[in-house]
Amino acid sequence: MSAPRRQSGSAGEPETGAGEEARTAIRFPPEEEAALLSESNAEKSAANDLFKSAQYSQAISVYDRALSSVPNYLEYEIAVLKSNIAACHLKLSDWKAAIDEATKSLEALDRLEGPPPGKEAGKDAEAVNGAAGNKDADDDGVVEIADEDEDEAKALEKIQLDDRRKDDIKRIRAKALMRRGRARSEQGGWGNLQAALEDYQALSPLTSILPPSDTKTVNTALQSLPPRIAAAQKEEMGEMMGKLKELGNGFLKPFGLSTDSFKFEKDEKTGGYNIGMNN
After folding, report:
1. Counting CB atoms within 10 angstroms of each CB, which of 45, 53, 67, 166 has the fewest?
2. Which residues are bridge partners to 262 per DSSP?
3. Rounded to two decimals, what is the model's pTM?
4. Phi, then psi, of 125 in degrees rounded to 5
5. Are the beta carbons of 39 and 69 closer than 8 angstroms?
6. Which residues contact 232 (CB under 8 A, 6 or more apart)?
7. Contact 180/88 with Cβ under 8 angstroms?
């Protein structure tokens, strides 16, 4: 019987591992899961080649096909593909789509291992891991060696695999944060710039695993974003006040008045403002 497929999401630099859809507790038998992953990996490899040849739109379509083969409980594979799609959108200067896909990658990682320190877990934060090296761990991250009937060498091998998976997750998280931070910075606006700063701040503890060029990007962004945020805030507040003034003038016009008919004086004792008429 052929395996039902997970629905792909909307359309990431390619990595070598897809959901927003409702998750179920149903898991495929190991053989069927392996077949789906093999099919997905073949599509992902083809998409990687398209990315390398600068065919970014085509790569997005093939990454989506890879996503459609991944069981929706294999969060690591989903995160990798979503991050790859975000990289494609960055190359196409589609900042909003890049933000959305990088966010979906990070959400998949949060479901896999829980959100990073300081971030609240979402309602989907229960970790559900797939067959390809996914792990079971205690809340404090300590892996016990051993049931009495478990061979110590195998237990040590499992710990090593778990450690490698943790490193892989950290690496994909860093890539997704880099991509989202850049997209938010390029998109601009007070809210996006503030969110980009938060992404780069989250990257600060991960600079040891970043290439030197990315580390330089993070450090530069941490210096350059605060003044950009202040300027964007000032501009947007000015635009908002202008619109409020225009709205107020519309209400006051029938009475032969305008907002210029009033003056605002700050009360130094209370910090509030008193409204009076201009002479």
Report:
1. 53
2. 277
3. 0.67
4. -75, 0
5. yes
6. 188, 189, 190, 193
7. no
